[in-house]
Amino acid sequence: MRSGSYVKSLEFLSNVPLKFKIMGMVIFTAFLISLISIIQVYETTERQAVSYLKEVSRSTANEMANLSEDYLLTNDIYKLDQIFQETVRLRPNLRYLFVVDKSGDVTASSFGSGFPRELLKVNRNVKKTKIELIGTDEGKILDGAAPIMHGNLGIIHAGVSFKKSRNNINQLIQSLVVTLLTIIGVGIVLSLFLTYIITEPIKDLLDATKAIGKGNYAIKPLKSTNDEIGELVLAFNDMAYKLTKSEKERSERENQRKILLKKIIDAQENERKRVARDLHDKLAQTLASLTIEFKLIENSRTLNHASLTKKIKELRGAITKELDSLRTLCSDLRPSVIDDLGLIPAIELFKDEFTKRYKISCDLRIHGDIDVRLDKTAKIVVYRIIQEALINVARHSFTDKVNLTLKCNSDFLKGTIQDNGKGFDLSKEHDLAGIYGMRERAEMLNGRLSFYSEINKGTTVSFEIPLKR
Ligand SMILES: Nc1ncnc2c1ncn2[C@@H]1O[C@H](COP(=O)(O)OP(=O)(O)O)[C@@H](O)[C@H]1O
Ligand SMILES: [Mg+2]
């Protein structure tokens, strides 16, 4: 039970805002210190006052015992009463003086008439000076009693009251309380200031963190100090800067991806248009004219065998030509060679076509058993990367030679397409859909692709694709 409530109160404390924790601590400590010092001061002064008053009561009793002797011997009671009254009036702590004779009667007293009889019970038959603490309706009194002339003339009592010194102590405590309250007040003001200094940057940090959490990266760097919180702020600024940067990079990549996607879709649409046009313009027209030719043959009654054979030969030639262009169209659309013969034969075929079409010689070097190590998707990806890189050389580099190397070891396939053409400045290019497409393709296979280009020195595209074991 007890440990449960302990845990609960700890939980409550940790939920209290930092501001109140610091304030609470300061106020609690100040109160505790004040309370302890008040109690200590009170006890010490009280103890000192008691021993002082005991001394006063003892010495007064002795002094007055000596003084009273003569008056008692001469029986000058009237004078003694007057001396007692005067002494009590002049000494601040002295409440009473009286003498009791051997038979228990009051001989002389400072009370005048109306002597309080209960005082007769205090300090009776003392042989030497003695002090007794008594409680009266006026408060505590120290009754000091001393025998006069060895008790032959009676016993003198000197009553010392606590009233005056109690008042002094109370005044002391009061001024102590006022001082301590002032110190607590100053402490609270200082702790408010301290709390402000500590919590303000933390509040700023919190606001900034919330803003970043909501996706608002446009936050200004926070002001930092030289303490631990300053270090935290610096670390936060650094983190915010990196987050902002990576968010910018991410959104740039996202934009490029979108542009690329649009390009791909556009390219696909154009390709479809071209295929449709090719099919319509060439194949459909040729087939239409072939149908007409066949109809003519069918309807002709004059054709002899020789001219029929000649006609059929012509028509066969036309069909073969069309079949060829149909094959080219199909291989452009999807190089079936990759599926039928493999990646390397497909690349070799493309290289030959490339040299023929663009008049650029291509030095192809191959190391390792690439076709065995790559799967179907990887083969198509590598083929498309090489296709794009070579067509870039043809379109942009203004050179007549390109080197293409493919190497494969147990872990990677590495490829480079290098030309000595006019080169380009990557940072100044805006339309990089082709380049991004190559990179995306390599990254799709967890690989990497990089460009190195220098104006008038040429361009090198390198890629690296991890291989499955
Ligand atoms: N081999 C190269 N030699 C010179 N410039 C090149 C080469 N490859 C690419 N570039 C430059 O990079 C640009 C971007 O290439 P790419 O993204 O493939 O787009 P595209 O080929 O459609 O212009 C090209 O316009 C060209 O200026
Ligand atoms: Mg290109």
Q: Gap between N and C termini, in Å? A: 62 Å
Tell me the series of helices and strands, N- to C-terminal: HHHEEEEEHHHHHEHHEEHEE
Poorly predicted runs of 5 or more residues: none
- Tally the structural domains: 3
CATH superfamily of the largest domain: PAS domain
CATH fold node name of the largest domain: Beta-Lactamase
- C-alpha geometry: rod-shaped
CATH class type of the largest domain: Alpha Beta
The count of strands amounts to 10
Please give the share of residues in helix. Answer: 55-70%
Cα-atom radius of gyration? 58 Å
Largest sheet: 5 strands, antiparallel
DSSP strand (E) fraction? 15-25%
Number of DSSP helical runs: 11
Question: Can you characterise this structure?
Answer:
- It is a single chain.
- This protein has three domains: 11-181, PAS domain (Beta-Lactamase); 237-333; 335-469, Histidine kinase-like ATPase, C-terminal domain (Heat Shock Protein 90).
- It is 63% helix and 16% strand.
- The chain is built from eleven helices and ten strands.
- The chain has helices spanning 2-15, 18-73, 77-90, 163-213, 228-299, 305-333, 336-340, 343-358, 370-373, 376-397, 433-444; strands spanning 94-100, 106-109, 130-136, 139-147, 155-161, 361-367, 401-408, 412-419, 448-454, 458-466.
- The strands form two sheets. It has a five-stranded antiparallel sheet with strand order 2-1-5-4-3.
- Magnesium ion (MG) is lined by residues 388, 392, 434.
